[in-house]
Amino acid sequence: MSLTEKSWEIFNQSVNDYHINDDVNSEENNPFQANSLEWILYSKNWIDTVQWHLEDIIREEDIDPTEALKIKRRIDKLNQKRTDLVEQIDFWFYKNFENITSDPNARINSETPAWCIDRFSILSLKIYHMSIEASREDASEEHKLQCSQKLNVLLEQKKDLSTAIDQLLSDIENGKVKMKLYKQMKMYNDESLNPILYQKMQKK
């Protein structure tokens, strides 16, 4: 089984586990060994799934502004956790390929393997929910037809992205692409980097 096949299987397991209760407050019950690649992939997709549904909730027209702000704060915290997990995945790849000698003319890819897998995780959610919309009994035939067409596009994207990830990993393994680690350097949650936060601290 390729890494993309394994990742897809884990992402779908996470999505299906979440929808047993379909509750943003459900506790994650990660079935894999702690800190293994499988564990990280499952946890990353669980966060994506919770965020997906929080983004739905926050768009409720009559939502209480105080509740909306709480949800926005929660989304921010989840975004940081998600970024941390993606960087863990990249570190796993970095360690896995650290003994590879890159060609002198090896390319640098614009996107690391883990951020490609991040998009792969989101795609699993898009396909899950578009599949539901394409067969929703209370929807019009026009709605179901449009969603079926969108689903076909998403399935094609899944195939293409899977191929692209496999090719990237193969190119790194063969020295054609140089594996480098990058940090996202997110600033908005850092009290020393976000001027709104540090200016407030300075006034105290």
Automatic annotation (TrEMBL):
The lineage of its organism: Bacteria, Pseudomonadati, Bacteroidota, Flavobacteriia, Flavobacteriales. It comes from Epilithonimonas lactis. This is DUF4254 domain-containing protein.
